[in-house]
Structure formats: C-alpha cells, structure tokens
C-alpha cells in the first residue's frame, strides 16, 4: 500500500475514534446538566478535547473560573507545539491563523512522524481539518443522543488515545537522545501527576531535556547496526 | 457567566497556539535550539501518552487501561497498522472491564 493511502486510512481511523469520543463528550456535558449549546460551543471555540472534559466538569461543579484556568494550563503545551510546527503550517497569515486553531496533539504527532516538508504540511492540514470536523460531528451527535451513550470507558475509548499517541511518536524516537529525553519526560510527568494540578505535570516533561546534559558517551554510544533499523 | 467562561477558555487556548507559531518566526533560533524543538515536542507527547495511560485524575487508574495501551504499544513497535493498534488497545480494555477488571 502506498504511503498516501496508508496515511488516509490512519487519519480515517482517527476520525472515526474522534466521532466516538466527541459523542461521549457531548453526552457527558448533557448528563452534567449543562445547556445543549455549551458542549457544541466548546468543541468549535476551544477545540481541545482534554481541556473540554475538564472544563465541563468544573463548570458543572459551579466553578467556571477554575474551569478556565485549569483548561488553559492543560493547553499550555500547545505553545512549544506551535514552535515545533510553525514552519509546517505555512507562512501566509491565513495559514497561520487557521492552522493554529486546528492544532491538536494528534496533528502535531502525525506531522512530526513525517520527514519530507511538503508531505508534512499536507498531513498536518489533513489531520487538523479531519479532526475538527469529526470532533464537532461527534459532539452534536452526543448532544442529540443525550445521556444515551452511557459510559465511554465501557468501550475502552480511554485506552485508544494513549495507544494512538504511542504509535504516532514511535518513529520520532529513532535516535537515542530523543528516546532518552522522551522517557525521562514521561517518567517525570507521571511521577508529578499526584502532586501537581492538571496540565502542569505534562509541561514538566520539558525537564526531560536535561538528560542532554549527560556525558556524551552516555547519549551517543557506538551505535550497534541492529539499533539503527529498529525504532 | 457560562458563555464568558467558554469564550475565555477558547480565546486563551487560541492565543497560546498562535503565539507559539508567531514567536517561531520572530525568534532567531540557534541550530542547537532548532534541534531541541522536535525533542521537546516528542517529550511532551510521550508524557501525555504516559499520563493518559496510567493516571485517572491524580491517582493510578485500574489495570484495564494500561494493559490495553501496552498491547497497542507492542503492536505499534511490531509495525502493525495504526488502525490495529487503536482497535486492539480499546478492545482489550473493554473486554477486561467486561470481565470485571477496573
């Protein structure tokens, strides 16, 4: 199968999953007792899954200010993401303004998994627009179905997101320094999750970059041929 | 109040996204720093995957979700198609929950 076909199939699968997760977001917001327009407004205006779930819960708990602050903290990782994909998005103002809004973890991960710049740009826009459309379709479906969707965890959807991310970042972990930085960052974030507010632990993953200060023979040992072919 | 909260979260999130994109054009980044950016992004994404796989709120989630994610990760490492990775992870977790594993 050609790379283009495979990418289209992968994006299609992600889009289908997004409809399901978006539907559970819409249904959960309704179950919280929020007016039907709120989940739909969030999905178009905010368009950041994790922070929407968090904000809906905190708004329902009667704490809208905490909802805004926690949601922004959770989305702070998009600043370094923007730095990483700025040249991918395109140089025109139209591209920058629209491309920034459709920035998601998945679009960044899909794009960074591709090395050719032209191909990378196409993939970023394809994933970004597909997810924006499917996420909003899902949200509307969820609102229409009300609480009928029930528990999204029963379908194992909460395991689909991290597994998809791992599949997407594996190719970029080819070289040993990146692998060590990512491992250290992930371990730091998990260790800090019980003690820091939501969003902050993931940002602390940037501390993983400190691994690069280690002696260079630790970072770049004589590369075994077998290690080059495997990611 | 509700609409104000949603607008504030939406505009704040957009400002965060756009400022990264615009800052990049203005910053004269050294070669070393440019090499660090993809690493920083990979580290953030790995942290996101790890916390989403292991934690529910501030506590460890039950074993069902990490087991499903692990199956998906092994398949991804063996270069299975993306669809298979996602489906295997979700199905494993769903079946474990059906069997009563939290």
From TrEMBL, chain A:
Its main location: membrane. It comes from the Bacteria. This is Putative integral membrane protein. GO terms for biological process: L-valine transmembrane transport. The keyword Cell membrane applies. It is a multi-pass membrane protein. The chain crosses the membrane at residues 12-33, 53-74, 123-148, 154-173, 180-213. It comes from Actinoplanes missouriensis (strain ATCC 14538 / DSM 43046 / CBS 188.64 / JCM 3121 / NBRC 102363 / NCIMB 12654 / NRRL B-3342 / UNCC 431).
TrEMBL record, chain B:
It comes from the Bacteria. The chain crosses the membrane at residues 39-60, 80-99. The keyword Transmembrane helix applies. InterPro entries: Brnchd-chn_aa_trnsp_AzlD (IPR008407). Pfam families: AzlD. Keywords: Membrane, Transmembrane, Transmembrane helix. This is Putative branched-chain amino acid transport protein. The lineage of its organism: Bacteria, Bacillati, Actinomycetota, Actinomycetes, Micromonosporales.
